[in-house]
Amino acid sequence: MKQFTVKIRENLLKRRAALLEVIQKADMERSSDGIALEQDMSEQAASEQNNNIIEALNGIERKELADIDNALRRIELGNYGICEEDGDFIDEKRLIALPFTTTCAEHSKH
Predict the structure, then answer these.
(1) In sequence order, what DSSP letters do the residues of the chain get, joined into one string?
(2) What gap in Å lies between CA 16 and CA 9, rounded to an integer?
(3) Where are the domains of the chain?
(4) With left for phi above 0 and alpha for psi between -120 and 50, is residue 78 left, alpha or beta?
(5) What crossing angle do the helices spanning 3-33 and 41-77 adopt, rounded to 10°?
(6) Pairwise CA distance, residues 42 & 64, whole Å
(7) pLDDT digits (tens, 9 = 90+) for 42-57
(8) What per-residue confidence (pLDDT) applies to 23?
(9) Taking CA atoms, which of 7, 36, 57, 68 is between 20 and 30 Å from 95?
């Protein structure tokens, strides 16, 4: 594995760990919200709105986590950085900016 890919892998693993921590914390907060039995209507509405926002963000984080897992899998298989559309190499600058991209810049618009 070349040095560039090793560095990308390290960064992906760090980001993965951070996302897992955020997702676990959000899941714990959501489950503890159900414990409070005595809330007035405005508190219940605010709590429900907060839960909806957390759930939406959690979905985004879970999508990013899946993208990271796919990139890590491609690294392990040896095909990381190869465009899945045409088989050409993806520019390293693009991989630095979007480490879990699967296409080169030319094919990203399709």
Answers:
(1) --HHHHHHHHHHHHHHHHHHHHHHHHHHHHHHHTT-----HHHHHHHHHHHHHHHHHHHHHHHHHHHHHHHHHHHHHT-TTB-TTT-PBPPHHHHHHSTT--S-GGGTT-
(2) 10
(3) 3-80
(4) left
(5) 160
(6) 33
(7) 666 666 666 666 666 6
(8) 83
(9) 57
